[in-house]
Amino acid sequence: MKHPYRTAALASAVLVSLGLSSAAFAGGRPDLAIAGLKAGRAHEADQLLVKYRDGSTAAQQAAVRNGLGAQKLETVRGGKGEIALLRMPAGRDLASAISTLSSNPAVEYAEPNWTYQHNATSNDTYATNGSLWGMYGDASSPANQYGSQAAEAWGAGHTDCSNVYVGVIDEGIYYNHEDLTNVVWTNPYDPVDGVDNDGNGYADDTRGWDFDGNSSNINSGGANDDHGTHVTGTIAGVGGNGKGVAGVCWSGAKVISAKFLGRRGGTTANAIKAVDYITDLKTRHGLNIVATNNSWGGGGFSQGLQDAIGRANTANILFIAAAGNDAYNNDATASYPSGYPNANVIAVASITSTGGLSSFSQWGATTVDIGAPGSGIWSTVPVSSKGNVVSGYASYNGTSMATPHVTGAAALYKSSHSGATAADVKAAILGSAVPTPSLQGKVLTNGRLNVSGF
């Protein structure tokens, strides 16, 4: 299927099945993986992700490990063509190992285990005092024409996003926050009893899963889970309760946590598992999951992660991603994961309260789709007080903050257009963008987010 909005696409790799040819051609993009290493993209030292070919035998896979002198750390994705995370001998040159494996008939591709960081730089009180500009419209009170226009939708009576789910792939979420009451999903398929009742591999995943810590505690970071909590508040903070902030979806939306960012960031291996976790919840249980919010970036190209995003697309789940905070042109220098050309990706730049492209925001006329409020964004955070974690609020800057405005928009649109596909929701978001001078030639739509008609 031809991508409806991007003109650039990564070239397809030629795959030759085992048994039909004595020479196997590499899948994935070993050239991009090696280029990322040479460019110094952050990755886990001495680790490789290896995707074995469908039909490869256990003996062939063992031979690959033995040939590298590698140890298998875990299975990232099971099945007949599993993805394995391997630990290489200390000091082994990863680029040469990837080059060697690209001609191994049992291997589809090998790539570094890239590491990622979040893209933030750091009658509802903040809504009425003029602070929550990202939610305002040009005719709301307070008003700001460069806001998302969410207040216009609220004024028309659209505040409820019941029966719509989004995944937050990020840090964890402080789910006891006063402004996130009943926002975080409770899993009805896996009661807390120490058993994996729904058979998804994660016992007692009550509110989601912590892939960084491999536990069911989505707030394992305590007060350090501020970034994931902040984006959650922008998506679905409770509105009309006389306190704090309001999300694009005032009420009803449910947020599923897929925590993969810890204090040291996150890895490709855990990002793949997090994306697949959300996809599995939709395909297994039929949850009405419209999108995942991905306010993070770094590392290089990963075929494994792109494939996981593709599986989400098959399940009609949008992958909404931050364009990045290093103020460069993504058309010229690829930025991931926002730069993957999958049809379900929406890449988001950041704008200021006066309509300018934020000084830190990356852009790209073909690789970034739309601008949204990302400078001076107030939202929910956990704070530490006398040894306890309590509810707080903070203003952060970043394409991380712009992205959840768009994720909230996806939920808002889906709640009033129940039959909309992922492609329909994306088309509605991009098609309603307001032309903005600072974004002309900088993003695909030349404009900024506008949910007034949602």
UniProtKB/TrEMBL annotation:
Residues 162-433 form the Peptidase S8/S53 domain. Keywords: Hydrolase, Protease, Serine protease, Signal. Pfam families: Fervidolysin_NPro-like, Peptidase_S8. The keyword Cytoplasm does not apply. One of its GO terms (molecular function) is peptidase activity. The keyword Hydrolase applies. GO terms for biological process: proteolysis. Gene3D superfamilies: Peptidase S8/S53 domain. Residues 1-26 form the signal peptide. Residues 38-113 form the Fervidolysin-like N-terminal prodomain domain. The active site is at D170, H227, S400. CDD domains: Peptidases_S8_Subtilisin_like. It comes from the Bacteria. Belongs to the peptidase S8 family. This is Subtilisin family serine protease.
